[in-house]
Design a protein that fits this description.
The complex is a heterodimer of chains A (315) and B (533). With 315 residues, chain A is mainly alpha-helical. Chain A is built from 17 helices and two strands. Chain A is flat. Chain B has two domains: 200 residues, D-Maltodextrin-Binding Protein, domain 2 (3-Layer(aba) Sandwich); 236 residues, Periplasmic binding protein-like II (D-Maltodextrin-Binding Protein, domain 2), CATH 3.40.190. Chain B has 19 helices and 15 strands. In chain B, strands 2-1-3-11-4-14 form a six-stranded mixed β-sheet. A three-stranded antiparallel β-sheet of chain B has the order 8-5-9. Classes of the chains: A mainly alpha (315), B alpha/beta (533).
């Protein structure tokens, strides 16, 4: 088998066949072209600039005018007294994200799938998609206003029920819950689309057979619907694990204040402050590179575990 | 897809990527200067106009990046048209919102495509990146009006802490009153306090009464915020004369230091913790306040829930006017600054020299003419144009003195909308023009009640004004401030809210010294000694 493979690999390429095949599938390649161009321009070419992390980089002087500092930027970041706290904050938010924000669309898709009233189902779907289209600045303004201790609706309700006002964004213990709940609200509808499409691919005859066999609604979900979504869930989970160190920057940054900074300072906000506010591009790139390497390792690990236990994975 | 074909695709991708990387490499190693399209030669003119009465024979073109806020017009105005007409210049203004402007400067810097002039931004970073040029020689040769307007004393503070050179052309307003301590007089009446509080105990008693007696009379005893705003604005009552959230100040011996380094700070911290635990201090102190977010502070006042604060004197008028639409008795008045437990009393005065625009390396070729242009703006004619507008249109001469005409003298809003007092562009704003705007074209006797309140608020703390210590952009500050100061802010908030003890605050504060704080303090001290000579 091995020998045959090697033999095949050494065979000369028949360019005529290749050309014919490319021409045959030209429209497919044409469709792929914009995506490919996007990835090359915005994902691969910028990788060249990762070497900024190893320089004391001065934008207007270029690499030739900037000093090579090796791993100094990484040392500076790792020796930051808040390094572990920032890492922990990032992980915590993502673990909560994984546990709730990631699972909510799955449950939502399952629930929608069970709805028989078509118009009601469409209405619920449409309403649930809406928060996804709001800009993050609008969302955070809404959250801030809604939760304000002096002018917010929620505290108005609490007071009307005899309770005391709570400065939700000023108390670190509420920050992660706010991030998680608002994340569910924003993403549950939009995130469910992919699972609904997976559900639409399940053969309806399986349900009919299950009904004939006397399976209950719950048993149908457990033994037909859920396994039908499993492949999609695993892929989404692997991708999500790859983002364990990448919290959406805008929302955290816009909801951050000195009172909740102890739990709200995450890698992305730190990178932003270093890079954009302090113009320390080298340190910001070093932190970003550190983030990417860990994320890449996590994706590989998740993929390996997935293949080991469920026989499905990305790579 | 056959393996051969797959290999071909891999090969093609590899070549494409490698080519792309090489392209990126070849273009990345060189600094990218800004294209100087339309650059024109100019005739050297020393503070004099040519035969046509213009500063330059050939049009001087340059680009100017700045942040804009409030009522300042973004799309040009008659005063700017006149300014460019008189000098024969064509300025390409690129305005950006004040919020997140620092980030915009960072992005512009990162793009490598600089405008010819840049307003604001972090000077230390701009100098460190070699993005702006020193102006000492140019000012000496072509900017005598500018140097004269700045004056010897303020010139020292304009020098860059790192190399002692001047990089900016400033905006000058020689009118010290700006802020005042403010309290709702009608709230005092509502809780039965006849006298305006003066010392710390009297203030605490008033605040407590506001808290306990539903001072805004809306039937909800829980929504009154006795002191609204940030805690930094209360520091001067404890002898900590700071005027921003960084906390730099001069100690008794004239050393440049941080408020946290002084023994008075512990007393201040203890008191703030007490005020917070009693519900007197604004629970949102870290997100609204004069030195944190003035817009949010105004919202609290306009919502009729804030009882007192230290903020812009103009707020007495605007807030009272707005509140009177719902409560005719509303009255926010300016009062003397709080006399703290140690007898300290202080309120920051307006910095005479503020704002700043630098010439970037992209504008280096025309730097001489740009300086000449601003030298014109700092001449008597330029000062009159920027402060009073065009004669006949914005002002008229009475006894040889410019007097603003209606509607431009109605207040700062109308004046700024017309292009007067245009702070994002360096100029001298005449103190008398400021007074005319404050008085809205009236005499003191003719002033409306709320305008009179504003005028009184400006001057009520005059005896206690202090000159804010400038923020020295040393190398250490530029490099470490993003790590150090947010952490101090966080510790401070945690300590005031009771999450950590006062001792823990100082323990954590000390831990910041080895990671940059000590360096910032040392370099600042050294730079301050150098500046003060």
């Amino acid at each position: 088998m091995k020998r045959r493979k090697n033999k095949q690999a050494k065979e000369p390429i028949d360019f005529q066949i290749v050309k014919r095949r490319i021409w045959r599938d030209r429209y497919m390649y044409l469709m792929v072209l914009p995506v490919l161009t996007y990835f090359i321009i915005f994902k691969y070419l910028p990788m060249w600039w990762l070497r900024i992390a190893f320089y004391d980089y001065k934008i207007l002087k270029g690499f030739s005018g900037s000093k090579f500092v090796g791993l100094d930027n990484f040392r500076v970041f790792l020796s930051n007294p808040d390094f572990l706290q920032i890492l922990w904050n990032t992980l915590w938010l993502n673990i909560l994200n994984l546990a709730f924000v990631f699972t909510a669309p799955i449950l939502f898709a399952l629930l929608l799938n069970e709805l028989s009233h078509r118009r009601f189902k469409k209405t619920v779907q449409t309403i649930s998609y809406l928060p996804h289209f709001l800009s993050m600045v609008v969302v955070t303004s809404m959250i801030t206003t809604f939760l304000s201790p002096s002018l917010g609706v929620l505290n108005g309700i609490i007071k009307s029920m005899g309770g005391e006002t709570i400065h939700f964004l000023g108390q670190p213990k509420y920050f992660r819950s706010i991030m998680t709940i608002s994340g569910i609200w924003q993403g549950v509808g939009w995130g469910s689309i992919i699972y609904l499409s997976a559900l639409s691919g399940i053969d309806q005859e399986q349900y009919e057979a299950a009904v004939v066999d006397g399976a209950s609604r719950f048993q149908q979900i457990r033994h037909i619907t859920f396994p039908g979504m499993q492949g999609t869930i695993v892929i989404m989970l692997i991708l999500q694990i790859g983002n364990l160190l990448s919290v959406g920057f805008e929302k955290v940054y816009l909801l951050q204040n000195a009172q909740n900074m102890g739990v709200s300072e995450v890698l992305s906000t730190y990178v932003y402050k270093m890079g954009m506010q302090n113009s320390n591009y080298s340190l910001a790139t070093a932190v970003g590179l550190f983030n990417s390497i860990i994320s890449f390792a996590l994706v590989l690990f998740a993929n390996h575990m997935s293949k080991k236990y469920s026989d499905s994975g990305l790579i | 897809m056959t393996k051969k074909f797959r290999n071909l695709i891999y090969g093609a991708l590899t070549v494409t990527l490698a080519a792309g990387m090489l392209t990126g490499c070849s273009s990345s190693d060189k600094p990218e200067p800004t294209p100087e399209e339309g650059s024109s030669e100019v005739v050297e003119v020393d503070d004099e106009t040519n035969e046509d009465g213009k500063l330059f024979d050939e049009t001087l073109e340059f680009s100017y990046m700045g942040n804009i806020w409030g009522d300042h017009p973004q799309d040009g105005n008659a005063i700017f048209d006149e300014m460019m007409e008189r000098t024969n210049t064509d300025i390409d203004f690129q305005w950006f919102p004040a919020a997140n402007y620092a980030e915009k400067v960072g992005v512009t810097l990162a793009s490598g495509k600089l405008p010819d002039m840049i307003y604001g931004g972090d000077i230390a970073t701009l100098v460190d990146e070699a993005a702006i040029i020193p102006l000492d020689d140019l000012l000496e040769e072509h900017g005598q009006n500018i140097l004269k307007a700045i004056g010897e004393e303020d010139l020292k503070y304009m020098r860059h802490a790192g190399d002692g050179r001047i990089y900016f052309i400033p905006t000058i307003l020689d009118y010290p009153p700006a802020y005042s301590m403010q309290i709702r007089e009608d709230w005092l009446d509502n809780v039965g306090i006849d006298e305006v509080p003066e010392d710390w105990d009297e203030w605490k008693a008033a605040w407590k009464a506001f808290k306990e007696q539903d001072a805004n009379n809306d039937g909800d005893p829980t929504n009154d915020v006795p002191f609204s705003g940030d805690i930094y604005s209360l520091m001067p009552a404890f002898g900590l004369n700071v005027a921003d959230k960084f906390g730099f100040m001069e100690d008794e011996d004239g050393n440049y230091t941080l408020a946290y380094e002084l023994p008075e700070f512990r007393v201040f911290l203890e008191e703030m913790r007490e005020l917070y635990s009693e519900g007197i201090l604004d629970t949102e102190f870290s997100t609204r306040g004069t030195f944190v977010d003035n817009v949010e502070l105004e919202k609290a006042f306009h919502a009729n829930i804030a009882g007192s604060s230290m903020t812009w004197a103009a707020n007495t008028r605007t807030t009272t006017d707005i509140l009177r639409e719902i409560d005719e008795n509303a009255k926010l008045i300016g009062v003397k600054p709080i006399k703290g437990p140690g007898g300290h009393q202080g309120i920051p005065q307006r910095k005479r020299v503020s704002g700043s625009a630098a010439i970037t390396v992209a504008g280096e070729d025309k730097a001489e003419d740009i300086v000449k242009f601003f030298n014109y703006l700092f001449s008597d004619e330029g000062i009159e144009l920027m402060s009073y507008g065009i004669e006949g249109e914005h002002h008229e001469k009475i006894d040889g003195k410019p007097v603003l005409k209606a509607p431009y003298n109605d207040g700062f809003e109308e004046a700024r909308q017309a292009g007067l007092n245009f702070t994002p562009v360096p100029h001298v704003f005449d103190g008398d023009a400021y007074t005319q705007l404050t008085f809205a074209g009236k005499t003191e006797e003719e002033l409306e009640e709320t305008t009179k309140m504003f005028y009184d608020a400006l001057l009520v703390g005059e005896d206690y004004f202090f000159v804010p210590t400038p923020l020295l952009n040393t190398q250490a500050f530029a490099e470490k401030q993003a790590v150090v100061f947010p952490k101090i802010e966080q510790l401070l908030a945690e300590c005031v809210t009771g999450s950590i003890s006062v001792d823990k605050f100082f323990e954590e504060y000390e831990k910041l010294k080895p990671v940059g704080l000590q360096e910032i303090l040392d370099e600042g001290k050294e730079a301050w000694e150098y500046i003060k000579g």
